[in-house]
Design brief:
The chain is of the alpha/beta class. Helices cover 34% and strands 13% of the residues. The chain has three domains: 78 residues, no CATH class; 131 residues, Rossmann fold (3-Layer(aba) Sandwich), CATH 3.40.50; 193 residues, Rossmann fold (3-Layer(aba) Sandwich), CATH 3.40.50. It has 15 helices and 16 strands. Helix 4 runs parallel beside helix 5 and helix 8 packs parallel to helix 10.
Length: 528
């Protein structure tokens, strides 16, 4: 038996007791056999308004089953979502009833029915769903008034009024139109403002800060005419890894060599002797460095940051976490960072600060407030930040860990047949090595790259890494990429469900919207 209280009436659901009609009052005779659940509850409401004591009504099993059947039918009618319409599919599932068309929009209070809902159960093994791409090009380009568009008529880099040689250099490598983040960031850097730039991966952030820096440096080089012996470091770009440092250096060299600017790089995995050799002949105009290597150079006095004009902290989501925050604070103590716009010009000018990343840990404000006035920083935040990229196809497959190799082999064979490259991410260096040996046995040509390799070995691989890493969905790509994720652990299912929900609702991923936090003291950041 189970009691459910409705108002002042206790309803007893019984599988054994017959219905009782023993009351002498007609008002106590409830029409239980009328065939309509609503009539029953209406009678209960009438009864509760006239009878003061609580009345127990016993419902037979057949009536209880009938009520449950009616509830199930009503539930199905209520929860049935008309998510499938004519046209392209946004979500394509193994179960076609869970598909969702591009043309369907969930209501504000409408709960999406997820294809991954039951994926924590072993019965879900072999299930899958795909978030299809809805456009062919990345949403990183603009036309007028900041409007995203992938049609013709885009603005060119000439709109920034930078030197023609820079525009020509970009055109020679088929970089014609600025991306959204470049349109937002470049003018502010040219105005010497301190910048906090938050934009999605692949949106062109590197060029967004390198282009105005090199434009300013080449203009000053023409005016001042320093010789090699008089050259000083004018711009420092800090990144968390040697591979990324090499990547940024290659971009800086490609657009800076034409103006005689010297770009050098120092990264992790090298001894003090190698770092010293980097600066043995002269100082560079632009230095790209990892925090550890730069600290060694500062301690040994191989470099000086006293006359720095630009300080860039790239990949802020990593640079401000616990593994780098201490080193970053020490490096900042060696610089003179401008606290206001007036301090970035003139003979006694200080370094203009540019912080770039996709997310910003909570410690960003605490660290930066020690070297600059946070009120001087202008925050540029991309509208697509933390949204799923609409030009990237994402597939999720629920399977056992033992089946991953077979599925990966099939995916790699398909990529090879279509003459496409593939990049496989693993969660540890040991897994990279194990997977490499397994692929060798399968006869799959591949190259391994992981953080525990000696620096010399990693350096031999960095060219391939630069050209292939992060190509999925990056600006400048010829077409959208595809991501295949294997879901093998129950604790990964919640993340998959979060991604699927964001895709069906067309919203950003939750918990990431407010990563750029206001500082706990001093002035608030200016958001543009």
């Amino acid at each position: 038996m189970q009691f459910v209280k409705v108002g002042s009436v206790a309803v007893l659901f019984s599988k054994q007791l017959p219905i009782t009609r023993s009351s002498s009052n007609a008002r106590d005779h409830v029409p239980l056999m009328c065939g309509h659940v609503d009539a029953m509850f209406a009678a209960i409401r009438r009864m509760t308004t006239t009878a003061s004591p609580s009345v127990v009504i016993r419902i037979p099993r057949r009536m209880q089953e009938r009520i449950e059947n009616i509830k199930q039918v009503q539930s199905k009618r209520t929860n049935k979502l008309p998510t499938v319409k004519a046209g392209r599919m946004l979500i394509k599932s193994k179960n076609p009833q869970l598909n969702q068309s591009v043309g369907y929009t969930l209501g504000k209070f409408e709960q999406p029915v997820l294809a991954s809902k039951g994926w924590k159960s072993k019965e879900a093994l072999g299930d899958y769903f795909t978030i299809n791409s809805t456009q062919s090009a990345p949403p990183f380009t603009v036309t007028h008034e900041g409007e995203d568009n992938d049609s013709a008529g885009h603005k060119t880099f000439e709109c920034f009024h930078i030197c023609p040689e820079l525009v020509e250099t970009l055109q020679s490598v088929n970089i014609i139109h600025p991306t959204t983040v470049q349109m937002q960031t470049i003018p502010k850097i040219l105005k010497r403002q301190n910048i906090l730039c938050a934009a999605e991966t692949g949106s062109g952030k590197t060029l967004a800060y390198l282009l105005p820096i090199i434009h300013k440096l080449q203009a000053e080089k023409r005016l001042e005419g320093f010789t090699d012996t008089e050259r000083r470091i004018q711009a420092v770009v800090m990144v968390p890894s040697r591979e990324l440092a090499e990547q940024v250096t290659s971009v800086a060299l490609s657009i800076g060599q034409r103006f005689g600017l010297v770009v050098k790089v120092v990264g992790g995995g090298r001894g003090v002797g190698n770092i010293k050799a980097t600066f043995s002949h002269s100082q560079p105009d632009v230095l790209v460095a990892t925090p550890g290597a730069l600290l060694k150079a500062l301690w040994k006095r191989f470099v000086s940051l006293s006359e720095l004009n630009f300080l860039v902290i790239d990949e802020a989501d990593t640079m401000f976490d616990a593994s780098f925050a201490g080193m970053l604070e020490k490096i900042l103590s060696h610089t003179q960072v401008a606290s206001r716009l007036s301090e970035t010009v003139g003979f006694t000018r200080k370094a203009q600060l540019i912080v770039v990343g996709a997310t910003f840990p909570g410690g960003v404000g605490e660290i930066l407030s020690k070297v600059t006035d946070l009120g001087s920083m202008v925050v540029v935040k991309s509208q697509m930040l933390h949204y799923l990229m609409p030009h990237v196809k994402q597939s999720f497959l629920r399977l056992k860990g033992a089946d991953k190799i077979l599925e990966l082999n099939q995916a790699l064979k398909k990529a090879e047949q279509e003459h496409k490259g593939a990049l496989v991410f693993c969660n540890s260096a040991s897994t990279v090595n194990w997977l490499g040996y397994t692929l060798e046995e399968m006869g799959v040509r591949h190259m391994r790259l992981q953080g525990e390799m000696p620096a010399a070995m990693r350096e031999e691989s960095h060219t391939d890494y630069i050209h292939r890493a992060g190509r999925v969905g990056r600006a400048g790509g010829s077409s959208g990429g595809e991501v295949l994720s294997f879901v093998t652990h129950r604790w990964d299912v919640e993340l998959v469900q979060t991604i699927e929900t964001a895709a069906r609702r067309r919203t950003s991923l939750p918990g990431m919207e407010s990563e750029i936090k206001k500082p706990s003291h001093k002035t608030d950041l200016t958001i543009e």
